[in-house]
C-alpha cells in the first residue's frame, strides 16, 4: 500500500497509523451502551420526562434542547467514524487523508460522548459545594500522627495547584508538635465533588526514621469530607412554609384579656400537615397579627427541625465514611518502599508516590475514582431501563 512513499513520508504515515490504531481502541471505550442511547432518544421525544420504563425519581432533570443536540451529534459522528474506517481499510489512495480526519473527529466524538453521558447520569447535588476535610491519626501512634500531617500538606498542595482558596480551620497538636486532629476548609465551589473520594481510611507502609532494625510499619489516618452547607444557619434562606401544607383554624381567645376576650375569633391555630407541628397564638386582639406571628413561629420551628436533620446527616456521613480506623478498612495504601499508591476501591495504582504526596499527581487517583463512579452509575442506570 505504501511501498512507493519516501522515507519521511513513510515515517509520517506510519506514525499516523499508530495513532489510528490507538483511536480505534478509544472508539470502543467511548461508544455509549445501546440501551443508554435508546433512553436518550426516548427522552428527546418525551419532554414530559415520564419514561414508562423508569420512575421520575430515578431520572435526572435534563435540558431537552441540549440532550437532543448531543444525541444527534453523537449519532452523526458515530456514523462518520464508521465511514472513515471503511475508507481507511478499503481505499488506499484516500487512506492517508482519512486517517487525519478520523483523528480529528475522534477528539470531537470523545467530548460528545462524555457530555451525553453526563446529561443522562444524575449528578450529586452536593458536588458543587465547597468542603471541609477532617483529618485525624488512626492506628500507629507517632507514625500515624506524622502521616496525618503529611496528608494535610498533600491536600494543601492540591489546593494550591488548582488555585483554590483554603485555610486550616482547626489544628490540634501534641507536645511533640504532631497532629492529633485538623480541619481543612476549602472555599471553592465544586471542591466537594473532587475531594469526596478522599473520605475513608488511608494506610501507609514504610520504615519509620526511628526504626533501628529496618522493619516496615503500617499506620493509618482517617479522612472525613463534608460539603459546606452555607444556608444551614442562614436566617435569610427561603421560607420552608408552604401555604398548601398549613391548616388554619380560628377561634375565640381564652383566658385573661379584658373585654375583647371571647367576643371575636382572634385566636389562631396553625397545623403543619406534613410534620404535625402546631402553633397557637392569641396574644394580639387582631386575628391577622396573631396569624402573622403564628406563621413566624412555625417557620422557626421548621428551620430548627431542618437544622437538626442536617446535623444528623453530617454525623451519619462521618460514620459511613470512616466506620473504624483499623488497617483493614483502608481505601488507599501508600507504600513508600515501592513508590506506589493503590486505591483499593477501583484497583488503580500509580508508581508516583512522591508527586502524589505533594498534591501534584493526586488528580490521577481522583480521576480514576471519577471514572469508576461513572461506570457504576451507568451500570445502575442500565439495570433500571
TrEMBL record:
UniProt keyword terms in alphabetical order: Methylation, Protein biosynthesis
GO biological process per UniProt: mitochondrial translation
GO molecular function ontology, one term from the record: translation release factor activity
GO CC, any one term: mitochondrial inner membrane
The keyword Protein biosynthesis belongs to this UniProt entry's keyword annotation: yes
Residues in Prokaryotic-type class I peptide chain release factors domain copies: 252-268
InterPro entries found in the cross-reference section: PCRF, Pep_chain_release_fac_I, Pep_chain_release_fac_I_sf, Prokaryotic/Mito_RF
UniProt cross-references to PANTHER family, sorted A to Z: LD18447P
Similarity section: Belongs to the prokaryotic/mitochondrial release factor family.
Name used for this protein in its record: Peptide chain release factor 1, mitochondrial
Gene name as annotated: TBLA0B09580
Amino acid at each position: 500500500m505504501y511501498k512507493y512513499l519516501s522515507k519521511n513520508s513513510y515515517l509520517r504515515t506510519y506514525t499516523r497509523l499508530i495513532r489510528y490504531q490507538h483511536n480505534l481502541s478509544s472508539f470502543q471505550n467511548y461508544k455509549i451502551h445501546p440501551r443508554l442511547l435508546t433512553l436518550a432518544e426516548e427522552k428527546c421525544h418525551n419532554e414530559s420526562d415520564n419514561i414508562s420504563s423508569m420512575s421520575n425519581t430515578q431520572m435526572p432533570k435534563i435540558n431537552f434542547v441540549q440532550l437532543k443536540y448531543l444525541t444527534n451529534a453523537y449519532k452523526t459522528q458515530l456514523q462518520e467514524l464508521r465511514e472513515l474506517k471503511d475508507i481507511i481499510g478499503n481505499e488506499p489512495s484516500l487512506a492517508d487523508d482519512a486517517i487525519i480526519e478520523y483523528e480529528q473527529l475522534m477528539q470531537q466524538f470523545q467530548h460528545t460522548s462524555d457530555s451525553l453521558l453526563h446529561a443522562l447520569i444524575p449528578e450529586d447535588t452536593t458536588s458543587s459545594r465547597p468542603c471541609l476535610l477532617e483529618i485525624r491519626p488512626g492506628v500507629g501512634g507517632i507514625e500515624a500522627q506524622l502521616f496525618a500531617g503529611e496528608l494535610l500538606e498533600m491536600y494543601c498542595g492540591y489546593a494550591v495547584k488548582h488555585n483554590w482558596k483554603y485555610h486550616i480551620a482547626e489544628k490540634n497538636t501534641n507536645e511533640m508538635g504532631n497532629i492529633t486532629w485538623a480541619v481543612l476548609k476549602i472555599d471553592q465551589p465544586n471542591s466537594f465533588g473532587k475531594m469526596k473520594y478522599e473520605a475513608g481510611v488511608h494506610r501507609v507502609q514504610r520504615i519509620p526514621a526511628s526504626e533501628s532494625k529496618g522493619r516496615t510499619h503500617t499506620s493509618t489516618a482517617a479522612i472525613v469530607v463534608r460539603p459546606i452547607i452555607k444556608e444551614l444557619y442562614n436566617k435569610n434562606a427561603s421560607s420552608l412554609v408552604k401555604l398548601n401544607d398549613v391548616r388554619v383554624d380560628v377561634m375565640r381567645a381564652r383566658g385573661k384579656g379584658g373585654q375583647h376576650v371571647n367576643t371575636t375569633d382572634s385566636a389562631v391555630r396553625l397545623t403543619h400537615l406534613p410534620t404535625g407541628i402546631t402553633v397557637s397564638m392569641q396574644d394580639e386582639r387582631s386575628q391577622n397579627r396573631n396569624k402573622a406571628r403564628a406563621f413566624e413561629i412555625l417557620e422557626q420551628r421548621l428551620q430548627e427541625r431542618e437544622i437538626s436533620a442536617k446535623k444528623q446527616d453530617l454525623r451519619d456521613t462521618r460514620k459511613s465514611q470512616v466506620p473504624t480506623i483499623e488497617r483493614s478498612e483502608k481505601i488507599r495504601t501508600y507504600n513508600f518502599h515501592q513508590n506506589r499508591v493503590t486505591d483499593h476501591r477501583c484497583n488503580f495504582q500509580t508508581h508516583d508516590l512522591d508527586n502524589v504526596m505533594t498534591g501534584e499527581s493526586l488528580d490521577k487517583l481522583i480521576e480514576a475514582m471519577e471514572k469508576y463512579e461513572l461506570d457504576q452509575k451507568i451500570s445502575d442506570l442500565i439495570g433500571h431501563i
